[in-house]
Amino acid sequence: MIAADVNRTILAVWRIEQPRLITGLSRMLRDVTLAEDLTQEALVAALEHWPVTGVPDKPGAWLMATAKRRALDDLRRRRMLARKHEMLTREQEQEQQAMPDPDAALDDDIGDELLRLIFTACHPKLSREARAALALRMICGLTTEEIARAFLQPEATIAQRIVRAKRTLSESGLTYETPRGAEVSERLASVLEVVYLIFNEGYAAARGDEWLRPQLCNDALRMGRVLTLVAPQEAEAHGLLALMELNASRIAARTDAAGDPILLMDQNRARWDRLQIRRGLLALARAHGLGGGQGFYTLQAAIVACHASAGTPADTDWPRIAKLYAELAALVRSPVIELNRAVAVGMAEGPAAALVIVDQLAHEPALKNYHLLGSVRGDLLYKLGRFAEARAAFEVAVKLAGNKRERELMMRRADEARDAARNRSLISE
């Protein structure tokens, strides 16, 4: 295997294993920041050794063993308690697939390692924005660029936010902890946001060669299900779970055999997971039963439920979807929500009505580098027969799209608009 292939393999393994490494080390060391540092050191070691020795049969186990050795060295240097030293030594000698510790499960009310660590990162001493950014970067393995895209913020702003959050954790002496009782409720809104953003990145990846990252979706779904047990009376926990279940029900139909995106109106609805739709609708009903019908996640779930309940694209209740987006926009001031509302208005009232809304968003600072603004505008212009303008809008989207699959889709749409304009010109001649 050539060096370039090894490096690609290392980065692919790293993306998968980083959250597990940080989670395991944090529980052992009870120090999230130190766990991240040791995980980074394991990556550096892989970059140094694997091009020479080859990729191990169990790369995740290799990274964990390396990180644990570095942890032992650090514990020795710091002269930490012998009990922790012995514990780490035993852990290093055990097989990778160790039996779960029943005492650990009894030690908290959460019962999910990754989710527990997200609760830890969402400490009240950090700002709401910093909590989410720190958890997404350190624990969930998202890049600073991906987080910036999720928040529609400059990458430098997110990087500074993460640095400040780490400094706060370090200077305040906060360590790995399991929140209980009122502490869980106090952090729940931030945790819901983190899980929501993890799912979104898995559902439509900001960067890379693939549009979907199924492992992130699965992690978010698992944590969402646990959250409804941790906070059974919290309507928004059920609303978030409903949103994720309903969206995930379409995953099998969202790409073709080559991995290229299939847009909603073109999807084979027979491939939608009906069991997952039923689970999502049950969670949505639970959220409504708890009085959460106007919550951020519950409103979005209600929108997706309209699609899930439609047997064909023509059956979709677009006026209701547009109304729900209007309610969502009244709840949260967001240009992205307004852009989504424009799409629904376009389907309910026609592309001209939607284009008015989209053109009003053209100068929104948050959408300056948002490729979907150009994509939506191009689609509306195409439907209005303004093919040259549509092509220009799609070409803007191509330049801004960070994901290879989305970029290729926008290029195909630009070509379609070019061909339509050319055909019209030939006919008119």
From TrEMBL:
Residues 17-79 form the RNA polymerase sigma-70 region domain. Residues 118-169 form the RNA polymerase sigma factor 70 region 4 type domain. GO terms for biological process: DNA-templated transcription initiation. GO terms for molecular function: DNA binding; sigma factor activity. Coiled coil: none annotated. SUPFAM superfamilies: Sigma2 domain of RNA polymerase sigma factors, Sigma3 and sigma4 domains of RNA polymerase sigma factors. Pfam families: DUF6596, Sigma70_r2, Sigma70_r4_2. Residues 187-288 form the DUF6596 domain. This is RNA polymerase subunit sigma-24. It comes from Bradyrhizobium jicamae.
